[in-house]
């Protein structure tokens, strides 16, 4: 049953991913998300409907504009594919439930924030803060508890202290992102933090290996790694937390 649900939800998830590309490109610039229609960034030609099918159009066009043959960023199909898989994954993991809808919305927000952070090195308050309020209210309605606001505050405080101690390593956008993550995950936000921070070490190590001391000036956005940790914790946070606590006994 859940497999069929996942398949059914993946297609609209791909379409949502296509819209997220518009949000990622326009919202930081405070442009309308509705008009004008999407166009090639190189030649300005409006993108026809046949060339706007998520993932498929990119493959058919071989990653190039039909008119001017300029390269299309692989970010576009990546955002579409990841969004589709996550939305389908929420249906598979949580079934046809209100929590599955909340989880899918949470994943959608994380995807668009990651895309923006990778491109512009910012995590817009216009997305993070409203999403935090919505998630916190939804969690309190679903399962009233102090766990959600406390986890949000604790996670944000942890990164705030880290940002004060090491300001070049992260920004206040990352701190605010953890408000959202904590509100959604509750106690398993610790798993999200652990995985997010550990995974962020990988590109840092690679940069140091390739560029030596010059890598200190090469900033790696933390947001996408925190989002990765949050997604892992969303789907498997409790088993991971129980396993870790078992090791520490």
What does this structure look like?
The protein is mostly helical and 249 residues long. It folds into two domains: 1-120, no CATH class; 121-249, no CATH class. Helices cover 69% and strands 0% of the residues. The protein contains nine helices and no strands. Helix 4 runs antiparallel to helix 5. The model has no long low-confidence stretch (mean pLDDT 88).
Output the keywords.
249 residues, mainly alpha
Number of helices: 9
Strand content: under 5%
> Stretches where pLDDT falls below 50 for ≥5 residues?
none
Number of separate domains: 2
Helix fraction by DSSP (H/I, runs of at least 4): 55-70%
Largest sheet: none
Please provide the count of β strands. 0
What is the CA-CA span between the terminal residues? 39 Å
Morphology call? globular
Based on secondary structure, the structural category is: mainly alpha
The oligomeric status of these chains comes to single chain
- Average per-residue pLDDT, rounded, comes to 88
Order of helices and strands: HHHHHHHHH
Rounded to an integer, what's the Rg over CA atoms?
A: 19 Å
In short:
The chain is an all-alpha fold. The chain has nine helices and no strands.
Describe the SSE topology:
Layout lengths: L1 H25 L29 H5 L14 H20 L3 H23 L4 H18 L4 H19 L6 H14 L3 H23 L11 H25 L2
């Amino acid at each position: 049953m859940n497999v069929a649900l996942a398949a059914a939800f993946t297609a609209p998830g791909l379409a949502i991913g296509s819209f997220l590309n518009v949000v990622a490109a326009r919202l930081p610039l405070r442009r309308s998300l509705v008009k004008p229609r999407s166009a090639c960034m190189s030649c300005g030609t409006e993108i026809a409907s046949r060339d706007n099918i998520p993932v498929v159009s990119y493959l058919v066009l071989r990653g190039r504009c039909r008119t001017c043959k300029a390269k299309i960023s692989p970010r576009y199909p990546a955002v579409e594919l990841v969004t589709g898989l996550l939305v389908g994954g929420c249906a598979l993991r949580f079934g046809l439930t209100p929590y599955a809808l909340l989880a899918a919305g949470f994943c959608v927000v994380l995807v668009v924030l990651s895309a923006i952070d990778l491109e512009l090195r910012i995590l817009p308050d216009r997305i993070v803060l409203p999403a935090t309020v919505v998630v916190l209210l939804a969690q309190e309605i679903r399962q009233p508890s102090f766990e959600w606001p406390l986890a949000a505050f604790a996670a944000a405080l942890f990164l705030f202290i880290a940002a004060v101690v090491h300001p070049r390593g992260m920004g206040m956008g990352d701190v605010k992102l953890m408000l959202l993550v904590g509100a959604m995950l509750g106690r398993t936000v610790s798993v999200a933090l652990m995985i997010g921070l550990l995974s962020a070490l990988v590109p840092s190590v690679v940069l140091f290996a390739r560029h030596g001391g010059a890598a200190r000036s090469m900033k790696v956005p933390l947001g996408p790694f925190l989002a990765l940790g949050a997604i892992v914790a969303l789907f498997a946070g409790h088993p991971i937390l129980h396993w870790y606590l078992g090791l520490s006994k």
